[in-house]
C-alpha cells in the first residue's frame, strides 16, 4: 500500500494528510519494530484526542445552561470543540470520520482509508487492540465499493478481498462482497479459485461463495442467502 493510491486528489490536500498521518504507514510495515513504533505514535495522538474530548465535555457541561444556540456561541466552548476536531485529524480512525460529501475516489484521505482496512486485514489483533471501530470499517468498505477506481486502488481492493477470504470471519467482513463485485476481474477470480481449491476450509467456503455471487449479480448478499448456499454445498 502506498500513498500513490490518492494520486487523483489535489496535491496540496494530499500533502496535508501526509504531514499529519504519514507515520501511520508504519502500522502495516512488515518489520515488527516499525509497527511497534507506529503504535506508540498512535497511542500518543489518541491520547491527545482523549484529552481534547475531555476538555470539550467539561465546557459542554459548564455551558449547558446557556441553551443550544447560545452554547455554540460561547468562545471557550467553540475553541474546545475546534481543538477536539483538530486533534482528531492526526489520529486513526478519527481522521477518517466525517468525510465531506463527494466522490471518495478524489478524496485526499483515500490512501489512509485503504491503510486502515489493510491494517485490519493483515494485522487484525493489533488493529483490534489499538483502533477497533467496526462502524468505521463498514462505512469505508461501503464507500469504496464503487467502480472506476484507479488501477492502484483496484489492486489494493483486490488484495483486501483475497486476504479476507482466507481467514475466519470477522465483524463486517461480509461487506467485502460489495467490493468484490465492483472490482470483479480475471485476476480476482483466479485468486478466488486458487483459494477455493486450497486446504484452508475458511478459504474454500468464503472464496466459493464470493465466486458464486460474482456469477449471480442479481442475488443479494444476505445471511439467508449465505446459509442457503452453505446448505446446498454441504448436500452435494
Low-confidence stretches: 1-9
What is the 3D shape? elongated
Rounded mean pLDDT score: 93
Number of DSSP strands?
0
Descriptive account of the structure:
With 236 residues, this protein is mostly helical. It has 2 domains: 1-132, no CATH class; 149-236, no CATH class. The chain is built from 12 helices and no strands. Helix 5 crosses helix 6 (124-131) and helix 10 (186-196) packs antiparallel against helix 11. The two termini are 40 Å apart. 28% of the residues are buried. Mean pLDDT is 93; it is low at 1-9.
Pick out its properties.
0% strand, mainly alpha, disordered N terminus, elongated, single chain, 236 residues, 12 helices
Summarize the structure.
With 236 residues, the protein is mostly helical. The protein has 12 helices and no strands.
Give the secondary structure arrangement, pairings included.
Blueprint: H1 11-21, H2 32-63, H3 68-71, H4 75-88, H5 110-122, H6 124-131, H7 134-144, H8 151-165, H9 176-182, H10 186-196, H11 201-215, H12 223-235
